[in-house]
């Protein structure tokens, strides 16, 4: 019904839902726009040509109206399918720089990973539903992207 409930129409309540997914990948921080010396200076040990790995953690947050019949913004199971198709299929156990075309020309930082995940999730979801992608590279370092 459209009965007001504490200032909200029941069918207009907006909620944010989050799924967390872990994956493992390797990469190397290296910019084609910089000399070898500059790459070493800026990226330090992360510029080692042999690369290194991370156990990444991704948090994807959607924003939407709570469907009055289902009580959900989106079923977590459906959200998981979207994450499987984008994050897991393309990134898990991959060499980010070699296996993902985007990182041939963009440094594979957490920031750019968040952008890549955003772009690939956005094509699968209803317009404006994607709210935030947060990528933890380590337990203490994360990058967050909101489509700006
Ligand atoms: N702004 C960013 N800075 C850095 C990024 C990044 O993606 N965005 N990435 C790296 C390297 O990938 C590096 O591998 C980071 O991991 P690590 O060196 O293991 O980090 P720490 O030793 O500091 O480990 P903590 O557990 O986070 O302390 C570097 N910079
Ligand atoms: Zn790294």
From TrEMBL:
GO terms for cellular component: mitochondrion. Zn(2+) binds at residues 27, 52, 54. Pathway: Cofactor biosynthesis; tetrahydrobiopterin biosynthesis; tetrahydrobiopterin from 7,8-dihydroneopterin triphosphate: step 1/3. It comes from the Eukaryota. Its cofactor is Zn(2+). One of its GO terms (molecular function) is metal ion binding. GO terms for biological process: tetrahydrobiopterin biosynthetic process. Its EC number is 4.2.3.12. It catalyses: 7,8-dihydroneopterin 3'-triphosphate = 6-pyruvoyl-5,6,7,8-tetrahydropterin + triphosphate + H(+). PROSITE patterns: PTPS_1, PTPS_2. InterPro entries: 6-PTP_synth/QueD (IPR007115), 6-PTP_synth/QueD_sf (IPR038418), PTPS_Cys_AS (IPR022470), PTPS_His_AS (IPR022469). Binds 1 zinc ion per subunit. The keyword Metal-binding applies. The keyword Lyase applies. The active site is at residues 46, 93, 137. Keywords: Lyase, Metal-binding, Tetrahydrobiopterin biosynthesis, Zinc. It holds the Pfam family PTPS. Involved in the biosynthesis of tetrahydrobiopterin, an essential cofactor of aromatic amino acid hydroxylases. Catalyzes the transformation of 7,8-dihydroneopterin triphosphate into 6-pyruvoyl tetrahydropterin. Belongs to the PTPS family. This is 6-pyruvoyl tetrahydrobiopterin synthase. It comes from Electrophorus electricus (Electric eel). The gene is PTS.
């Amino acid at each position: 019904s459209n009965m007001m409930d504490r200032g909200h129409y029941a069918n207009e309540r907006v909620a944010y839902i989050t799924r967390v997914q872990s994956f493992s990948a390797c990469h190397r921080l290296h910019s084609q726009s910089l000399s070898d010396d500059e790459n070493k200076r800026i990226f330090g040990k992360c510029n080692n040509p042999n690369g290194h790995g991370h156990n990444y953690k991704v948090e994807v947050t959607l924003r939407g109206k709570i469907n009055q019949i289902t009580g959900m913004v989106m079923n977590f199971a459906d959200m998981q399918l979207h994450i499987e198709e984008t994050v897991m299929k393309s990134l898990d156990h991959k060499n980010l720089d070699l296996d993902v075309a985007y990182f041939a020309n963009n440094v594979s930082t957490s920031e750019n990973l968040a952008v890549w995940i955003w772009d690939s999730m956005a094509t699968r979801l209803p317009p404006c539903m994607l709210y935030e992608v947060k990528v933890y590279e380590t337990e203490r370092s994360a990058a967050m992207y909101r489509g700006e």
